[in-house]
Amino acid sequence: MTSSLRIGVLTSLYPAPERPFEGIFAQRRWSGMLDRGHDVRVCQPTPRVPWPLGSLFPRRFGDLQRRPSEELQGGISIQRPRYRHISKRPVGNAKRFAKAGMDNLVSSSWRPDIVVCDYAWPAGAAAPLGQSLGIPVVLSGRGSDVLEVGGEAGLGDELGAFLRCAGKWVAVSQDLVDAMDALAGDELGTLVPNGVDAALFHPRPDSERAAVRSELGWKVDDKVILLVGHLIRRKDPLLALESFRHFQATCPDARLVVIGKGELEAQFREAVQQAGLGGYVDMLGERRADDLSGLYAAADCLLLCSSREGRPNVVLEALSSGLPVVATAAGGTGELLEPSPFDTVHSRTADAIAKTLQDTLACPPLRQAIADSVAGLSWSASLDTLEAVLFQHIVASRRGPGRARSAS
After folding, report:
1. Mean pLDDT of all residues belonging to the chain
2. Would you give the end-to-end CA distance of the chain in angstroms?
3. Distance between CA 229 and CA 257 in Å, rounded?
């Protein structure tokens, strides 16, 4: 076997001009593999938007319609073939998604050594197609693509069948690995956590922190709480706001800075006004990584109130920046906090979360000690593990079908 691989990546989430922050960590992973000499091609099948939906409902369909069918990002070819998406037909949609993706990735001029379904659903439906073509497939779980799909969406049997057919899966948290093992009825999963760029996310000198705070209009005595992530239900930003309200009642200099957008944005803004917190909450929208690094370094705490998580990258970035974290117990969050000076909040009440904020900020640990707790979670280490998994699965597939099974 050669030292480099032809890797086909089938994914539903990847940055595009209309959604530059969507799937950003998938982009980081595959850019890293490209830098290691692997030939990486990404396919993101996109629902076909019938005329005139793109014009009539631009917020819902316009960006899908405008998404380029192909582009080049940092040396990686991104292909976006269109497929037919039918409302309330999740299994059929997954199969059509996978068919469009595999048809695009496998051609007479290029055949991948392995296909990685980066986000297990709907891409996992490619596993039986890969089996029929003699191409090994690995499913990669990141969060809702496993927990929501296998839970409230009621598609656990289908996802389990795709996992068994692939015969190998990875996930960004041990919690997700265990969930995928349970769905498949076999323990063939491997933890491949996301890494963090410590050259970007690291503690800053007090002078640099003060400069950032001054630039953003934060006062010296302000206790700045960051809320970073999509404003969606599973992130529970309304609980975070209520927790901040309780905390601010005991700490008048507290300020909540919100980074992100989402379906709950209008409701969140209304709740801010109803709570009389308009002068204490800043909503800055989405921010790129280099902007985020300064915000992490200058703030006083990160607040995360998710009800469900994979292994939240915002927590990893905050810890690497030396920023204290207050987070509810959800998915792999505790795995990140375990070696740190912090623990998850097990009560999903505003009082309990506000009390943890008070205790954390009353005597925060040294920022370098916080950063040291995640020093081993580098992108280099993550890619080392991923490479080993891909090579091993290819070797196992060439030796025979092994434990891979047909999807029912």
Report:
1. 93
2. 32
3. 11
Topology classification of domain 6-195+379-399: Rossmann fold (3.40.50)
Residues whose CB is less than 8 angstroms from the CB of residue 161 and which lie 6 or more positions away in sequence, other chains included = 407, 408
Token pair, residue 186, equals 């076999």
- Dump pLDDT digits (tens) for 89-102: 999 999 999 999 99
Kindly report which listed range (21-25, 177-181, 251-255, 379-383) carries the lowest average pLDDT score: 21-25
**Are the beta carbons of 41 and 111 closer than 8 angstroms?**
no
Closest CA to 267 of 300, 293, 242: 242
The pTM of this model reads 0.91
Side chain identity, residue 87: S
380-383 long-range contacts, CB within 8 A, separation 24+ = 380/195, 381/195, 382/29, 382/32, 382/192, 382/193, 382/194, 382/195, 383/29, 383/32, 383/33, 383/36, 383/195
Q: Where in the chain is the domain with CATH 3.40.50.2000?
A: 6-195+379-399, 206-372
* Residues 79-102: b if buried by 16+ CB within 10 A, e if exposed: bbbebebeeeebeebbbbbbbbbb
**C-alpha 188 chain-centroid distance:** 22
Q: Which among 288, 281, 272, 306 has a CA at the least distance from the CA of 226? A: 281
Please return the burial class of 362, using the count of CB atoms within 10 Å of its CB with bins 0-12, 13-18 and 19+.
exposed
> Is-contact 303 317, C-beta < 8 A?
no
Instruction: Copy the structure tokens of residue 70.
Output: 């192909």
Fold of the domain spanning 206-372: Rossmann fold (3.40.50)
Residues above pLDDT 90, as percent of the chain: 87
Cα–Cα distance measured from residue 53 to residue 62, given in angstroms and rounded to the nearest whole number: 8
